[in-house]
Specification:
Number of domains: 3
Strand order of the largest sheet: 12-11-15-10-16-17-9-18-19-20
Shape: elongated
Oligomer: single chain
CATH architecture of the largest domain: 3-Layer(aba) Sandwich
Number of helices: 15
CATH topology of the largest domain: Rossmann fold
CATH class of the largest domain: Alpha Beta
Helix content: 25-40%
Structural class: alpha/beta
Strand content: 15-25%
Distance between the termini: 67 Å
Largest sheet: 10 strands, mixed
Number of strands: 20
Length: 542
């Protein structure tokens, strides 16, 4: 039986979509509580009104002066405490929009009533967003993520506190390690760009430091406790080393060193991504880049080019012909930029690679593919992201089908798809945001400041997630979906807590997600059985 928590106030106007309740003295009501009431209608019918508590106020009843609080505490004035809560209506069944009547009992929504209040009962395919503050599952409608009715997730929050990447990987873990995908699970892929540190290079290792309470949370969510089961790890090849060795510090085993052959670079027309700088891109320079790309694609024999420096020399010698019709300043700017690429990204483009397939980023190798770019120069980062997304987008276009799905996790969207300017990489991300839904490409994008990201990228995201925010950023128009109280709360959110907005629920919900069950650094990697005993035997005796 549902618990009564209060009654509809008669001193405030109750409206069909919002009302105030007086909270009973023996009841604890908090922000985010889900409530319900039933109003009888003429003729014997009734309507169920569901909502969420989004504001609360406590005061002394009958007090006229601020100093009355001292008199009340001394027993001089007989003042009572009054607690009231504001409710925003989330659902009305049937859809007869009438206000609740003053004095009506309001109940805490539990079980099936809670599912109705939050539209969980209408979700045919659900995935876990986390747990509500009262420990109940917050579901997401997968139809608004897989392209059926919508797609894409956008996550905002300050660096280091909002745990944007951790939440993105938690969402993937919930999707891949539940029964949600069914027979599609085997072919569904994820591409994660690792832009900070090497934390994501341990997704396939179980977290040995997982707190005991986290096990209970995973059980509540219906998820196993462990690492990602099918992972491929990619890191850029080392500079100044002929052998194609991955450039990593904390992990060496099972990491693929990636690069591109000069032939792939030329035929794929990837030169544009070495010029992917939105701040000073010009139409003339872009046109020259396209001209040179077209000429490079005509090359038949790539054997003379031992490394990227040789190709740059060939381009420089050919600019007298390829650059005809362009101003000398444009040609000079092109040459300077191209030569500057050699020490920054030249090691990623190799000639005469013995076995190029071994060093190719191939997301069909595993379900989850982590591409490390954190240690690259900014121009090299743009190159890797642009090339991978372009090739993936072209492959999906060629199939003409939205299945299997491909999830793309990319942090720092404000850098790669900024609000101002244009660049090749921004155009690819825009294509994914606007047409990816029909192709089964799902973008899970993140940034510190959504106000600095291209509006169409953010606007096409069905799910909007907010972690800890700078309060000035929270006042920007990009967060208009947050009620005033939620904007203020975003400034004090703790790690592991986000505010999640999804299309079917008219008010965002505070959501908590568990500590990662996969390792995020070497010290968290679970040791193999017997390793402790083996290490003890190796220690010298005193």
């Amino acid at each position: 039986m549902s618990t009564e928590i209060g009654k509809v106030l008669g001193t405030y106007d109750a409206e069909p979509l919002n009302f105030w309740i007086a909270v009973g003295e023996d009841q604890l009501v908090q922000l985010d509580d889900v409530v319900m009431l039933r109003r009888a209608l003429p003729g014997g019918a009734s309507v169920a009104i569901y909502g969420i508590v989004d504001q609360m106020v406590a005061r002394h009843e009958g007090a006229k002066l601020e100093s009355d609080v001292f008199l009340a505490s001394e027993g001089v004035l007989p003042l009572n405490h009054a607690v009231k809560a504001h409710v925003t209506v989330t659902r009305v069944e049937p859809e007869i929009f009438v206000p609740p009547l003053p004095g009506q009992a309001v109940y805490r929504a539990e079980g099936a009533d809670r599912d109705q209040a939050l539209f969980f009962d209408a979700m045919k395919k659900r995935f876990p967003l986390g747990l509500s503050r009262d420990g109940e599952i917050v579901h997401g409608n997968f139809e608004f993520l897989d392209g059926t009715r919508g797609a894409h997730i956008n996550i905002s929050g300050v660096s280091g506190v909002a745990t944007k990447t951790t939440y993105a990987t938690f969402l993937l873990y919930g999707i891949f390690h539940s029964d949600l995908l069914g027979a599609e699970a085997l072919n569904t892929k994820a591409i994660i760009f690792n832009v900070k540190g090497e934390d994501l290079l341990f997704l396939d290792k179980q977290n040995a430091t997982l707190p005991a309470e986290a096990h209970q949370t995973y059980a509540k969510l219906g998820l196993p406790v462990g690492a990602f089961e099918d992972v491929a790890l990619y890191a850029p090849v080392q500079k100044h080393v002929e052998a194609l060795i991955p450039d990593t510090q904390t992990r060496k085993e099972n990491v693929i060193g990636y690069c591109w052959t000069i032939e792939e670079f030329c035929k794929g027309r990837y030169l544009r991504f070495l010029f992917a700088d939105a701040d000073d891109e010009t139409s003339q320079l872009s046109a020259l880049v396209e001209r040179v790309e077209a000429e490079l694609a005509r090359i038949k024999d790539f054997r003379p080019y031992d490394d990227f420096r040789d190709l740059v020399e060939e381009i420089r010698n050919s600019l007298s012909m390829w650059g005809q019709g362009f101003a000398s300043g444009t040609v000079a700017s092109f040459t300077r930029r191209l030569e500057a690429v050699i020490p920054r990204a030249g090691h990623l483009i190799r000639g005469n690679v013995a076995n190029p397939d071994r060093h190719r980023i191939d997301w069909s190798r595993a379900q989850v593919n982590v591409i490390d770019i954190h240690n690259l120069h900014d121009r090299a980062k743009r190159f890797v992201i642009g090339v991978v997304l372009k090739r993936m987008f072209e492959e999906k276009e060629s199939t003409g089908s939205s299945r299997p799905l491909v999830f793309v996790v990319l942090d720092e969207l404000n850098k790669y798809a900024p609000r101002e300017g244009s660049s090749p990489i921004k155009e690819v991300i825009l294509d994914i945001a606007e047409r990816g839904r029909s192709l089964g490409i799902i973008l899970i994008g993140a940034q510190q400041t959504a106000s600095q990201v291209e509006r169409r990228v953010v606007g096409n995201s069905a799910y909007r997630i907010v972690g800890r925010l700078d309060l000035a950023e929270a006042q920007q128009g990009e967060y208009a979906f947050l009620p005033v109280v939620s904007r203020a709360r975003a400034g004090i959110l703790k790690p592991g807590t986000v505010i999640a907005s999804q299309p079917e629920i008219p008010i965002p919900i505070l959501t908590q997600f568990p500590f990662p069950a996969w390792a995020t650094r070497p010290s968290e990697v679970a040791k193999a059985a017997g390793e402790d005993a083996f290490q003890a035997l190796r220690k010298p005796k005193k």
